Amino acid sequence: MGTWGIGPFEDDTAADFADTLDETSLDERENLIRSTLNRAVEAQDYLDASEAVEAVAAAALIAAQCPDGEPVTSSFGPDEALPLLATDLRTLAAEALDRVLAEESELAELWDDTDDGPRWRQSISHLRGILDPPTKPQEDSLFEI
After folding, report:
1. For residues 110 and 49, what is the distance between their CA atoms, to the nearest angstrom?
2. So what's the pLDDT on residue 98?
3. Average model confidence (pLDDT) for the chain?
4. Distance between CA 102 and CA 67 in Å, rounded?
5. Beta-bridge partners for 3
């Protein structure tokens, strides 16, 4: 597996996922992203590194459509435009990233054995925060007592 950075498309498997997305018809791309995330969330016991890499790439594409999201600008990301993705994918993507960071994740284990492990975890946590931002406490009361 070739990995050259901590970004969601800085890996051969993620680049292959982007190619598959480009080859998928426009009306089926959301289904491909959804099934990729579901595979990660539903993985029994141990999450394989390649499935985790694809889930991170899919989550990055969803996060790019969020209000605070950053566009995917990697030359290894998809070349073709994505349709506007369903907002329920944000929750699924956040769950997939939780699974990617879990103890039973081969990808997390591999990154934890490197000097860049903490930076990688921080980048995944940042991505998750875009998908599921913390709610701000309500400052005004709804009614007076």
Report:
1. 8
2. 97
3. 92
4. 26
5. 11
User: What is the reported pTM?
Assistant: 0.90
Residue 22 in tokens: 């480009």
50 vs 36: CA distance, rounded Å? 11
Measured CA to CA, the distance from residue 50 to residue 40 in angstroms comes to 10
Amino acid identity for residue 22 in this structure: D
> What would the DSSP string read from start to end of 29-64?
HHHHHHHHHHHHHT--SSB-HHHHHHHHHHHHHHHT
Task: Tell me the β-bridge partners of 47.
Answer: 105
Identify which has the larger pLDDT, 73 or 22: 22
Inform me whether the pLDDT recorded for 122 exceeds 60.
yes
Alpha helix positions (H), 71-135: 88-101, 106-112, 117-131
Q: What percent of the chain has pLDDT over 90?
A: 79
Phi-psi region of 136 (alpha: psi -120 to 50; beta: other; left: phi over 0): beta
Kindly report the CA angle at 83 between 127 and 53, in degrees rounded to 5? 40
